[in-house]
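Quick log. Single chain, no ligands specified.
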Amino acid sequence: MISVIQLLLLKLNPEIAHHIAVRLLSLYQFFKTKILRQIPQGVLLIKVPRHFEWKLSSRLGMAAGFDKQAQVFPALFHLGFGFVEVGTVTPLPQPGNPPPRIWRVAPQALVNHFGFNSIGLEVFKKNIRHYRRQARLPVLANIGKNKSTPAENALSDYESCLKALEGNVDGFVINISSPNTPGLRELQSTEFIRALCKVLPLSSPVLLKLAPDISISTLQEICELVLSEDCLSGLVLVNTSRELSEKRGFSQGGLSGPPLFSTSMDFIERARQILLGKKIIIGVGGVSSLEEAQQMRDSGADLIEIYTSFIYQGPKLIKTISSRLQ
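-> predicted structure:
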């Protein structure tokens, strides 16, 4: 049945298919949590810098962008994910970029140009509080700035998200790397990150999510800064690639999926050499199999996230990776 549903969804418009998938997961979530009254539990203890701990069911997580509204993360836990990144959320509601804004491209990749379509902090926080009762595994909030917020005021948007959600999630991922919000990637600078450190909460782990298109020198500078700052717990490597999207003829959007894997691996290996195990690395980008997940893990990623491969391969991939990833 799952295979049939998956094949049907892949024949629909990608955004419509996503909405249907979320609805189906909502039904699955209701059945698991309300009818069967099952609550996923963590068995794997991961120590996070700054004396935090995450208790996971596996090292495999769902990347940001799937559960944008923080509504179905309990269902994702029931499918086998050990942690989930929800969002990206922005302080104020915004519709994102006009459709079409997501495309399927070979080989089993996606190009998306959503542009942080967000329900805003107020509703997002209510969802987190409501659905956290149905799950006892880590939920990380991916936060961003509103499109209308000028770059010089971006810090206030991130601070608003941090203050509103502090105590409601198990950690934060600072999104300064999406290619779909004008000027956002310019925030991948040591100057902005130092300013950001002044407003970060002391009660939650905070990670930075970086783009695969930054220079190696910029990556090294940011890694050295992360290593020196106690308020930062690590990195999420990497976001979607604007450069790979352009190479496939797209004038907008970022590419995710298999073509991104080699860059993700390179960034993780370089980050590991600088961070020396003193900060956590979440690897994401192009993982499509257990072998690739293990390869990324062996290269220095403490945890692994997927998204695009889940769209194409479905729940079976989650069970395979989560049950066997070392």
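The domain at 2-324 is CATH 3.20.20.70 (TIM Barrel).
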